[in-house]
Amino acid sequence: MCYSFAVPSNGLLSELPINFQNDGLSWDQLRLDQEWEKSSSKEEIKHVLGLRGQPRSSQFRVVEPGQRAYPRYFAPGIVCDEGKNWLRPLRYSIRPSNSAWDLSTKYSLYNARLDRLLEAKTWRPLIGHRHGILPFTSFFEWVERKGKKTQIQFIPEGRSLMWAPILWDYWTSPGKEVGHFSCTLITDDPAPEVEAAGHDRSPIFLDADYMEAWLDAESGSAEGWQEFLKGHRETVAYRHSLAA
């Protein structure tokens, strides 16, 4: 899986090899959600968001450029919606549109295994319908070193920016108080350097020439997209170090 990732600067986002527009309305909605949260009691937040327990921290945390995004944090991503590519704030952990409860991070809804896209009831409705791209500069994984869990940072060699395919959805509270976009990052068998470092999964680095094809979700079948992601990767090596 991909435990967390580093958000690129706005300047690096402009280097993405696709055209997109900033979705100002989505960023405005997120700010409204934050304002609603600040003015609401913990009990109301729990009820409206469908949390299992009272919130211990903000449910609408936004990552600044250059900082790390963890599960349930909001970070910029590219989604295709109604034929246009939009830069939107996406929560890094999917919240299905029909979900009554917001499940905890222990269910790993921030990562989707490529080999289970057609099996898992959470992913199957999205593959072939709601595709996106998550840009980042590095990613982090937990590995075991000398009997202890250690965080490792993986950085692509010779690349300042990388991107991975995602699935996304939009959830609105039953009373329409809040609504937000969320995503899950698709992972596959690890790159050789990631496996050598001790981890069994890594993000897919999608070939730049096929980004537009992936974003055009309705142009293929779910089965076809699974095969598409197996065969259209960037060839890149990774260096790694202990996370700061």
From TrEMBL:
<comment type="similarity">
    <text>Belongs to the SOS response-associated peptidase family.</text>
</comment>
<dbReference type="Pfam" id="PF02586">
    <property type="entry name" value="SRAP"/>
</dbReference>
<keyword id="KW-0238">DNA-binding</keyword>
<keyword id="KW-0227">DNA damage</keyword>
<keyword id="KW-0456">Lyase</keyword>
<protein>
    <recommendedName>
        <fullName>Abasic site processing protein</fullName>
        <ecNumber>3.4.-.-</ecNumber>
    </recommendedName>
</protein>
<keyword id="KW-0190">Covalent protein-DNA linkage</keyword>
<dbReference type="InterPro" id="IPR003738">
    <property type="entry name" value="SRAP"/>
</dbReference>
<dbReference type="InterPro" id="IPR036590">
    <property type="entry name" value="SRAP-like"/>
</dbReference>
<keyword id="KW-0645">Protease</keyword>
<keyword id="KW-0378">Hydrolase</keyword>
